[in-house]
Amino acid sequence: MVAGLRLQRLPSAHPGIALAARGAAIFLALLLASIVLEITGAAPLELGAQVISATFGSTYGIEDLCLLLIPLLMTGLAVAVGQQIGAWNIGAEGQFYAGAFSATAIGLFVPGPTIVILPLMFIAGAAGGVIWILVPTLARAYAGVNELITTLLLNFVAALMVYYVSTGPWRDRVGMSNSATPRVKAEIPEFWGLVHWGLPLGVLMAIGFALVLSYSKWGYEVRLSGSNPSAAKYAGIPVRRHIITVMLLSGMVAGIAGMFEIAGTVHRLQGGISNNFGYLGIMVAVLARNSCIGVIFSAALMALILNAGIILQTQGLTTSAVLAITGLILFLTAIGDELAHYRITRIKI
Amino acid sequence: MDLLTGLFSTAFLAGGVLALAALGEVLAERVGVVNLGAEGLMAMGAITAIATVTATPYPMLGFIAALAVGALFGAVFAAATVWLRANQVLCGLALTLMGTGLASTIGRSYSGMPARAVFERIEIPLLSQLPILGKALFSQNILVYLIYIILPLALHYLLFKTRHGLNLRAVGENPAAADAAGIPVNAIRFAYVTAGSALAAGAGAYLTLAFVPSWSDGVVAGRGWIAVALVIFAGYRPIPAALSGLLFGLITALGFVGQARGWPVAPAFLSMLPYLGTIALIIVPVLAWQRMRRIMAAPAALGEPYFRDVR
Amino acid sequence: MNDTTQSLPPGTPPLVQLKGIAKYFPGVIANQDVDLDVMPGEIHALLGENGAGKSTLMNILTGIYQPNAGEIIIDGYAKEFSSPLDAIAAGIGMVHQHFKLVQAFTVAENIHLGWDKTPKSASAPKLEARTAELATKFNLQVRPGARISELSTGEQQRVEILRVLAREARVLILDEPTAVLTPAEARELFKALREFRDRGNAVIFISHKLDEVLEISDRITILRGGRKIATEQAVDCNPRSLAKQMVGRDIVLANMRQRPAGAAPVSTEPVLRLDNVSALGETGLSALHGMTLDVFAGEIVGIAGVAGNGQRELSQVLTGIRPPSSGRILIDGKPVERANAADFVAMGIGHIPEDRLHSGLAPALSVTINAVMREYKKPPVTTAGLYRPGAATTLARDIAEVADVTVPDFTMPIRNLSGGNQQRLVARREMRIASKVLVAAYPSRGLDVGAINTMLKYIVELRDAGAGIVLISEELEELLNLSDRIAVLYEGKIMGVIDNDKVDIDEIGLLMGGRRQTKEVA
Fold first, then answer.
1. Helix (H, G, I), strand (E, B), or coil: what is residue C195?
2. Are B96 and B201 in contact (CB under 8 A)?
3. Alpha-carbon distances, residue A266 vs A52, A253, A319 (angstroms)
4. Segments of chain A assigned E as strands
5. For residue B137, pLDDT beyond 80
6. Which range has the top average pLDDT, B269-273, C175-179, C327-331?
7. Which member of A88, B223, C132, C295 lies 3.0 to 4.6 Å from A148 by CB, making a disulfide possible if both were Cys?
8. A320/B266 touch (CB, cutoff 8 Å), yes or no
């Protein structure tokens, strides 16, 4: 060993160091990605400059960014909410589909003025998300079945279902494409350029969750149950009831994300509407260390990365490359989180 | 071939993907590491195999290349989770994202093309003449024999009948006890997580060289996750893992038969069956067979990194 | 006392010699300048309080830790143990305080774990036959095919010892071996250890119990604060001199049963009563059988017994965490309709749980959140459904102050505090609400002498304020020192309740082992 110096593992990582580790992970991942790009013959710096000018050089760029931010914020919030009770909702993708599906059903088949239809779509989207996480929730609460795999497998079922209706019974028989439904008429109004009111609503929801968790008796009980269920039982807290409520809320948020996407951005149900937002939401929540407020910022960061991928599509990059880079960030973040527990100390003898 | 033979033949072929991936996952989980990267490893294996046979038309070479790539990615995952003790769930998810994304990116130039070389059927004399199962099991490509017969038996023997198997199971059950008994905990974890990852990637190669056989985006379609679930259902044992792979092959085959025969169900719903079936299979046993819990129990230290010189 | 040591030919090297061993942990000097020599044919006791560095020293000798300084000399040759394997090869084996056994494995599988003599092809029948042979050879009764989870702690210890002996250990290290045994089992163990010694081997016996150290050992080395204080012949020692060296000062054993003037008298009606209560354990098997127990206000009821005989379930039933499967719980004479931990708290029943980090605290959450766990529902912490972090911190600060714990930052995770400070906070948190009853499970476990004294003083203080105390402990001395009555728990049943004035240690020992004397006790 080095004379007098020692690596020491602390029981908890200092929040500042953990945050720095996240920054380092993102930087390192982007650096690695640039090196790969460089090797394959692309010029990463030029591409980077292009991304920045395309994103921030025009109002359109920022609007596009905000439109990506909305679903990422919501799915990230969904995962973070689940984590408050210690549940891994890897099924935000499926709940997103289910919310989009239910909202579309209302939008296409229930006649009425927008002022009535929009709230109905909102409720349907929320309910779709809740229904989609119901079985994993009950299985976790009553049979102790790990929700990670059950929520995830339902993603594939939801994707197949949406694919089926949008290419089958609900297919747009008039328009050009036969892989999407007709346009849903009810639309969330815009509040700035192309950006619809989903953005402020999503931010409000994140703040709302943060406030309820920090400043209510219910929030206290949820935090305790999520951190150590046996301590919560010892304190007389109904842990199972909280698991059910919080997991259903998590599904609800992801379902609302799907509704926003339909009523605010895409306006048609189509296969692949979720665009991996559910999986990227995991990333958003992890980067935010499951803080509901932090989700707002990490979602913005993810939107930036995802947007870069979309801009670079014309340069031969793909969204799958973005997914891979995201994976790399997540991987390095996980390592950084652990390493943040260590510090080097001098031993006094 | 009559209906039953056809059904079982397809079942063996389709189930092989899941069985091989599940066997890989059994290895990782038996030493106490949850590898949620199976999906990504399969994608990497699938594209590696396709790329290899496009360059040289030898399917075995493609399979071996996939194993090697799987081992490489597995070693990185194992280094992070075993030596650096990073969170296994996060690293597994990250590996899935990385593998899936990278495979799709590489796979764009191979998309839609049929594999240039595939594993051919090998008829085993005499055995393949048996009614129904003979034709279904003994007239398959070589990997099917490896996956259903050789590997499960070999792994069962290794795990439950050898000294080394005793030691490696102890690592998954109680690393501190294994350590005190002089078993190199982290080295064993590293080795088996890497080997298990190689098998998962091998399952991807099987997918594109024997089952589908071509690359398309999203070809893995959650099979890695089903494999992770099957391991729970199989009680972390190799023979039941291979058999539950077969069970899912049967569900898939039923879907094919349904489509071929024009059952009045949309193909999308038939495709949902494996996912819904998996969910049912991991929930129902917990409710139904309370008494089985001890036998089916996960290794006690599953998911926990091991620290020694720390307090 | 033992002539093997004296009869060794001159110049015989010690079996084990440690020279200048040092080991540092973050912020802690676990060992410093420790010398130790253990001769063939001796039982050498290592005596010290919790935290004196005994376990660390032995973890170094068994290769689990590497020392920061010093050398290990075996049979006169310097060795370096980079892993437990090296230590085992050198003939050193250890029976840990927390057994290093794989619960899901059979006895035979555990014996053969990580052993190079295990046949490469190791089927269950083969391993069981070999185990049976070993058991006969070393005269240690074990059931080769049984799973560890099915064994009593005494049996598990035999498996550990057999495993060490099977590897041809010449030095057997035992860490607090009697803590999990009944007195009868402990005598059996001592017999086996003497036999082992008489074959020319050595035993290192780690303990903090003076009487048993004097009984079993030939020489005694005392550690304090990570350093060696002295090595003495056991014949030259007495409990008083040992205690003084171990603690560093004279300890006065205060009789804590004496009430000061003004203390609350013992009530005439029980404040809490278990009436024929049975309960299921974690595994769904019956853990408590038809238990009847009265707790009066102003008294301390001790619960004696070997750990694992229903203590956990008893404390959970007493505090409403675990519902009884049959029978009634009466509080102030009124039966409890539905057991619920929150209701028990509201009725004034506090609980210091046996495993504070696992069940009494959320280690990752802040000191504040943990401190207010019992009062978060009430004003001032929660008013009209609103949780007020400021009021919570004020309450947490109050609790920390009476507990005499300095908390630099109330938002930091409570796991950053030391074990003793955590325990003091838990105790004070519980005392605030325990107006009727406090259930204290192993309150002194893992604490050093000073902290134990504080903890016991707290308990007496609460008794004098008029609460009934249920004190669950594995330390008979502690129970005798505090309790007014002692109930002995064995396999989920109360074997008898003994008045402390008429106590008979042998009788308690018998009851702990599940045997009743003919005469019934009150």
1. helix
2. no
3. 25, 18, 18
4. 5-9, 190-192, 195-196, 342-346
5. no
6. C327-331
7. A88
8. no
Q: Chain B contacts of A283, Cβ < 8 Å?
A: 97
Q: Does B273 touch chain A (CB under 8 A)?
A: no
Q: How many CB atoms lie within 10 A of CB C249?
A: 10
Instruction: Note whether B282 contacts A150, CB cutoff 8 Å.
Output: yes
Contact C109 B161 (CB under 8 A): no
| B25 and C CB contact within 8 Å | no
Q: What is the 3-state secondary structure (H, E, C) of chain B?
A: CCHHHHHHHHHHHHHHHHHHHHHHHHHHHHCCCCCCCHHHHHHHHHHHHHHHHHHCCCHHHHHHHHHHHHHHHHHHHHHHHHHCCCCHHHHHHHHHHHHHHHHHHHHCCCCCCECCCCCCEEECCCHHHCCCHHHHHCEEEHHHHHHHHHHHHHHHHHHHHEHHHHHHHHHHHCHHHHHHCCCCHHHHHHHHHHHHHHHHHHHHHHHHHHHCCECCCCCCCCHHHHHHHHHHHCCCCHHHHHHHHHHHHHHHHHHHHHHHHCCCCCHHHHHHHHHHHHHHHHHHHHHHCHHHHHHHCCCCCCCCCCCCCCC
**Which has more confidence, C214 or C418?**
C214
What's the pLDDT score for residue C260? Answer: 83
What mean pLDDT comes out for the span C249-274? 80
CA C193 to chain CA centroid, nearest Å: 22
Q: Do C25 and B311 touch (CB under 8 A)?
A: yes
Phi/psi at C279 (5° precision):
-150, 155
- Report pLDDT digits (tens) over C156-188: 999 999 999 998 899 999 988 887 787 778 888
- What pLDDT is attached to residue A313? 77
The token pair that represents A297 in the structure block:
């910022």
* pLDDT (average), residues C419-423: 85
**Which A residues 49-68 touch B at CB under 8 Å?**
none
Nearest to B17, CA basis, from B238, B205, B217: B205
Rounded to 5°, angle at Cα B257 from B255 and B259: 70
With contact defined as beta carbons under 8 Å apart, do B119 and B141 qualify? yes
Minimal C-alpha gap between C226 and chain B (Å):
16
Q: What is the DSSP letter of A264?
A: I
pTM for the model stands at 0.88
Tokens describing residue A271: 């296969």
SS (H, E, C) A42-91: CCHHHHHHHHHHHHHCCHHHHHHHHHHHHHHHHHHHHHHHHHHCCCCCCC
Map residue C201 onto helix, strand or coil: coil
Q: Which two tokens stand for residue C334?
A: 């009124």
**CA-nearest residue of chain C to B296?**
C104
Name every residue whose Cβ is closer than 8 Å to that of residue C121 and which is 6 or more positions away in sequence: B161, B162, B163
Q: Which of A214, A259, A332 is nearest to C388 (CA)?
A: A214
Summarize pLDDT for A18-27 with one digit per residue, the tens.
888 888 998 9
Which residues in chain B (178-207) have CB-CB distances under 8 A to chain C?
Answer: 178-184
Half-sphere exposure in the Cβ direction for C388 (13 Å, CA): 11
Q: Which residues of chain A have pLDDT under 70?
A: 1-6, 176-177, 316, 346-349
CA-nearest residue to C370 within chain A is A224
pLDDT of residue B1: 52
* CB atoms B182 and C84 under 8 Å: yes
Give CA A17 to chain center in angstroms.
24
Backbone angles phi, psi at B299, to 5 degrees: -50, 135
B271 contacts chain C (CB < 8 A)? no
C340/A237 touch (CB, cutoff 8 Å), yes or no: no
The pLDDT of residue C4? 45
Give the distance from residue B306's alpha carbon to the nearest chain C alpha carbon, in angstroms. Answer: 13
Integer CA distances (angstroms), A194 to A115, A117, A264, in order: 20, 21, 9
